[in-house]
Write a structure and sequence with these properties.
- This protein has one domain: 5-stranded Propeller (L-arginine/glycine Amidinotransferase, Chain A).
- It is built from 9 helices and 17 strands.
- The longest helix has 15 residues.
Length: 348
Amino acid sequence: MTGASVTRFPAEWEGQDAVLIAWPHAGTDWVDNLADVESTYVALVSAITRFEPCLIVVADAALHTHASRRLHGAGVDLAQVRFLTADYDDTWLRDSGPVTLHDGDGFRLLDFRFTGWGGKFGASKDDLLIGALCAQGVFGSARHERIEFALEGGAIETDGEGTLLTTYACLHQRHPELSREQLAGRLREVLHVDRVLILEHGALQGDDTDAHIDTLARISDPGTIVHQACDDPSDPHFESLSAMAQELANLRTRDGNPYRLMPLPWAQPIHNAEGRRLAASYANYLVVNGGVLLPVYGDRADAKALAQLRLAYPDREVVPVPARPLIEQNGSLHCVTMQLPKGVLNVA
């Protein structure tokens, strides 16, 4: 970012204290495939704790005991796990968890209004989750800042140097009364960035977030964007994702150079039992300390996605995590996690 700034939105690839998740239970939307999705959560926590601690929100003591037993039975190092108790509607912590800014020598936890993706689902408990965790002292002396502006963590992607990448479809759905310029201005103000890049194209069937950027395009370093591509002209996604790829090609870095673009392969269509197509995006990966956790779906494209991410993150170990059960509820690995920057849990 040009000029001095004491407040900064860090990139996901910067150092982390932990990853925050919430455990699924029968009171969430996972009730119909709870056993399968719990297996995914066990695999996810196992992968996270290879690299850093995992903070797990549970609804009550019984769920704490149950989750501990599942993880212990799978050989997860419970010394790397910390349980927190709070109430929640569902487990999409990318969107109901805190967006953390470096703020001078400390941190600021942005608590945006969470509306259940524009009122599609009940979210009254999720909207209170950050405040409940802050009240327990989870984040040390980090400053909790409630912001009455609807925004989800999955809708924003940053390079840590003042550039933000997002989509117009999502922002406009949440705030139809605001112009594109007003939306960009609000994001610059609250996230302390000075460049807001807004994509017009790109959407996945089975995604009810209105085109969250973390299902479409990710900044892997200040000069590189990894994006979900579609190479099948007969697929209904082909036109939209091709148009998005052209938009990305037209973007420029802060230095005025084109971004290096790294397309991810396209999985074959995956449908649920009722025939609804599910959003199997490889772009919904999670970056952790020394690693990248890649959602895989049992598709032949999994291996190609793994190879491409190894090129995008050459200094990190890329670990596949089976994520097929997650897309039953329209999200994947990145959607159910929120990284916590280094130092936020240890501030005195």
